[in-house]
Amino acid sequence: MTLIDLANPTRFLALSARVLPWLAAATVIVLTIGLYQSATAPDDYQQGATVKIMFIHVPNAWLSMFVWGVMSIASLGTLVWRHPLADVAAKAAAPIGAAFTFLALLTGSLWGRPMWGTYWEWDARLTSVLILFLMYLGLMALWRAVDDPSRAARAAAVLTLVGAINLPIIKFSVDWWNTLHQPASVMRMGGSTLDKSFLIPLLVMAVAFTLLFVTLHIAAMRNEILRRRVRSLQMMQASQKAA
Amino acid sequence: MTALSALIRRDIRIALRVGGGALIGVLFFLTVVVLMPFAVGPDLALLSRLGPAILWLGALLASLLTLDRLFMADHEDGSLDLITMSRTPLELACAAKALAHWLAAGLPLIVATPVLGLLLNLDMVSTGAVALTLLAGTPALTFTGMIGAALAVTLHRGGLLMAVLVLPLSIPVLIFGVAASQAVIVGPMNFGAPFSILCALSLVSLVVGPFAAAASLKHGLD
Amino acid sequence: MSGLNQGKMQLSGRGVVCVRGGREVFSGLDFEAVSGEAVAVVGRNGSGKTSLLRLIAGLLIPAGGTIALDGGDGELTLPEQCHYLGHRDALKPALSVAENLSFWADFLGGERSDTAESLATVGLDHATDLPAGFLSAGQRRRLSLARLLTVRRPVWLLDEPTNALDVAGQDMFGGLMREHLSRGGMIVAATHAPLGIDSRELRIGGMA
Q1: Does A66 reside within a domain?
Q2: Are strands C64-70 and C38-42 parallel, antiparallel or unpaired?
Q3: What is the ipTM of this complex?
Q4: Within-domain flag for A98
Q5: A10 — contact with chain C (CB < 8 Å)?
Q6: How far apart are CA B17 and CA C94, in angstroms?
Q7: What is the domain count for chain A?
Q8: Which residue of chain B has the CA closest to A130?
Q9: A105 lies in a domain?
């Protein structure tokens, strides 16, 4: 029953108003713990203190993909089930996803400066994230280009799903393109051999950023619902006959 | 003057509101520049050598493609009729529309240049040089492109036809824009000569563009 | 306040020929209108009613003959003294009702009256700050009429002005036209429906 309850925008507004403060509080607490742990984590023997950027970079990179996943599910909701909140969820997620992606790029290039000697290297991972960022911006442009939200929603849903199918292909192509040109690739972050003193803060930060996303997303959805109500009130006002 | 400033304010407002296309040009610019390394490879030395050319081509395409609708939208909703009949000379109205377009769509390209310079491994001086030449050269692109936009209204066709008409006209701007940027980055030519010619091209187009566009609109009245 | 500082004006066309797309629409057309008079241009579809209005407005160039306004402001051309209300409303959906109206007031210039007052007259004062894209076809037409009121021009060229207007809107518009004529204005309207005011008929293109 809860899902059906949530499908009603009015119920959603009421319920989310109660949940939002708790979510915000949880985000602040976990983020504080994560930041403290990150700050006190030992320096890497190779990268020094620079490695700490990873505690911000990795969660952002993770969310940049996770948010696209959320939008894809919401888009299915728009196209298949015509769920009344689905396109609100998809629209509200896009700018937040773009912001996380941008932060992932920014922290990646700040990390790259001491590692590579330039702010930008056409490294396979960063390049894939850059393309993801472009797709987020394109999606936001699409939402902005069409005045009527329900018409924009269907177009955006199709684009989101096409993107979800295409992203792995793009990622694969970029990897191939990159190794083609650079057989001895640049230094990469260690894979599974992460020490526990890195892993735990990283996981805490990942949880913190996920909480941050959920909080921001619900708040943005509330804004979007209210914005649509204002719009329909305005349209009613326009059609009302002057006295 | 109130008439012209009202027209400029209106066009900028429409471009920035929902449905307006001001920032799509920047996104297009960004995408074109990001595509280049996939074609030429991620070699940073090569990219920094090609950088000014890539940025100039991207800016050229972005500013021309957004020009397509400059007069078309006003034509479709009947605004162009009223603009033609007004007490403001059509040449000045055309110039005001082009100026508004440049402010809303051309200037953001120049603002975005430093970020794109970073992607192409250009240093501060080179990026500054490209941004400066774009600042001097994009008005020429807008004001010559306007002629194509006016012809598009007359011919009831926009899009590719307009690009085919206008792109050859923008070759001189491209030549001297890239030459001036390269002069700063690699020499041996001095920066002053190509840059002055670039400025001259912009100034000439500032005069020729509005007259040609207005003439084309007047003869295409329908 | 007379609003129109000119004395007696006369709009006259002599032997006007209109050619569109290689086809002669009408030829040898004579017409005239004086201050305080409304001319209703009637004729079947394709007889050139819209073309005649656009010829007067300077939006088409006559293939022959002359159109002139005597007694108007000598410094201004005929199109500059005209208001043209065509099929299309010249409104931008992204701008608010007030922004649309005050843009045209600023751009067209000349003598102007208060925009809020004009919006109230046409019954759009409740929608001043709403985007014009929210308006219905009839409301868009009313907003175009507000433009005629805000920016004063002696000659009104109206193409099917009552299209999309409801009965109350047509009554309101009839009142506006009568007031314009009483100030010494002039109206040339292409219409199928009765104009709603006393007018002289100008039939073009032969049989209706």
Answers
A1: yes
A2: unpaired
A3: 0.86
A4: yes
A5: no
A6: 7
A7: 1
A8: B34
A9: yes
Measured in angstroms, the CA of C129 and the nearest CA of chain A are apart by 9
Contact residues for B82 (Cβ-Cβ < 8 A; gap 6+): C84, C90, C104, C107, C108
Q: Which residues of chain A have a CB within 8 Å of the CB of B47?
A: 122
CB-based contact A141 B121, cutoff 8 Å: no
Contacts of A147 in chain C (CB under 8 A): 93-94, 133
Please enumerate in sequence order all residues whose Cβ is within 8 A of that of A172, keeping only pairs 6 or more positions apart, or say none.
Answer: none
In the predicted model, is pLDDT for residue B37 greater than 80?
yes
Which structure tokens are listed for B3? 């008439």
Whether residue B79 and residue C90 make contact (CB cut-off 8 A), yes or no, is yes
Query: Among all residues of chain A, which has the CA nearest to that of C120?
Result: A242
Q: Can you tell me the mean pLDDT for C179-187?
A: 87
Closest-CA residue of A relative to B40 is: A181
Q: Which residues of chain A are within 8 Å of residue B22 when distances are taken between CB atoms?
A: none
Q: Is residue A188 part of a domain?
A: no
Q: Please tell me the pTM assigned to this model.
A: 0.86
Q: Which two tokens stand for residue B115?
A: 């970020």
pLDDT digits (tens, 9 = 90+) for C60-90: 888 888 888 888 777 888 888 888 988 888 8
List strand residue ranges (DSSP E) for chain B, in order.
Answer: none
Q: Which domain range does residue A52 map to?
A: 20-181+193-237
Residue A89 · residue A77 · CB < 8 Å? yes
Binary contact (C130, A238; C-beta < 8 A): yes
Distance from CA of B210 to the nearest CA of A (A): 29
Q: Which of A27-31, A39-43, A62-66 has the lowest mean pLDDT?
A: A39-43
Distance, in Å, from the CA atom of C4 to the CA atom of C72, rounded to the nearest integer, reads 9
Residue of B nearest to A141 (CA): B24
Tell me, what's the pLDDT at C200? 79
| Band of residue B97 on the pLDDT scale cut at 50, 70, 90 | very high
Element (H, E) at A71: helix A53-76
